[in-house]
Specification:
Length: 340
């Protein structure tokens, strides 16, 4: 492969667009370029942003655009073979459009690989683990609950229609105090995301603070529920019993759900992403609660080999890719697919 070949990764989010270049050996070339996202203004506006980012990336390392031999992009919506299937946080003109082929044509026929943001983040976590060649399952609690699966060798498993690994929408066999299944943001009831996400935290806080025994809790004030949810982790780190109770429940249910995913895919490595991956102190407690749920649900052989008790069969690690993980992931895939 020619050393003059480069590959771009374009991570299209609802708030920002993050872009990177990697060289012929897959190393980051130059700095990440981050722009405010205009996805709600339509895909043409975003295409303009992506071209602007490509120009900045190539100028930053002193190369021409024609040295970019492949592009990877991810979108925050379900898609199949380059065509957006759902609106999510996008302008309506994204839906039904072959974004992959149209952008490839706009940049002079440079080949483009496209996937969703969960797969891209999983690919990024795989790419930064240079010595890891097995499978990798990413589970990332954030506003929702995202994830992705990378097969041994570095290819994302996307399913026949690009709809695989909607990890937040597997069933969680847990009910509210009144026996009801919580409603998920997808409109269904009883999804894992309805328990393990920032949105779920807001619901739990509201329910708990409404109980008479919590009427004097410091969070029981007039601040918006969103603000209370962001404060909850600080309360948990300070030893607040209610905050710990809420996070423990969330972590245990998440571990319970991960056990079922591991039972199906047996990835060997589970990477935990989302905002909690960046909390050095609190995440150790949270991982402990995840492991409680995992060990309750998983067969012992999914933790340790019955033949060699010193061999861990499912390792858990926190995400290390940072803000550029998704962009790196799709750049990594473009390099694998389009290099000479």
């Amino acid at each position: 492969m020619a050393e003059s070949e480069f590959f771009a990764g374009l991570d299209i989010g609802g708030s920002t667009v993050k872009t990177v270049l990697v060289d012929h050996v897959g190393e980051l070339a130059g700095e990440m370029i981050e722009l405010r996202s205009h996805v709600k203004d339509g895909y043409e506006a975003t295409f303009g942003q992506l071209e602007q980012a490509l120009d900045q990336l190539t100028a930053g390392i002193g190369i021409s655009r024609d040295q970019v031999k492949g592009v990877g992009m991810d979108v925050p919506a379900p898609s199949c073979d380059g065509v957006i299937w759902g609106k999510a946080n996008l302008h309506e003109n994204w839906v039904g459009t072959n974004i992959r082929d149209q952008f490839s044509e706009r940049i002079g026929g440079t080949p483009v690989y496209m996937t969703n943001d969960g797969n891209a983040a999983a690919l990024g976590e795989y790419a930064v683990r240079k010595k890891h060649h097995g499978g990798l399952l990413l589970v990332a609690p954030g506003t929702g609950l995202g994830g992705g699966l990378v097969l041994p060798g570095g290819r994302a498993y996307e399913g026949a229609n690009g709809l695989a690994l909607e990890v937040g929408h597997i069933s969680a066999p847990h009910r509210e105090d009144d026996g009801e299944l919580p409603q998920c943001s997808c409109g269904k009831h009883g999804c894992l995301e309805a328990w393990c996400s920032l949105v779920a935290l807001r619901r739990r806080i509201g329910l708990e603070l409404a109980k008479p025994e919590n009427s004097d809790h410091p969070l029981n004030d007039d601040s918006p529920i969103e603000e209370k949810a962001f404060k909850l982790r600080d309360f948990a780190q300070a030893g607040d019993e209610l905050a710990i109770q809420i996070f423990r429940q969330q972590g245990q249910i998440l571990g319970y759900g991960i056990a079922d995913l591991v039972r199906v895919f047996d990835p060997g490595l589970v990477v935990l992403g989302g905002g909690l991956a960046e909390t050095e102190g609190f995440r150790d407690d949270y991982l402990g609660w995840i492991m409680e749920g995992f060990e309750e649900r998983a067969w012992p052989m999914y933790s340790k080999s019955p033949i060699d008790p010193d061999k861990i069969t499912t390792r858990f690690e926190w995400a290390i890719g940072g803000d550029s993980a998704a962009a790196l992931g799709v750049a990594f895939s473009a390099r694998e697919m389009f290099r000479s």
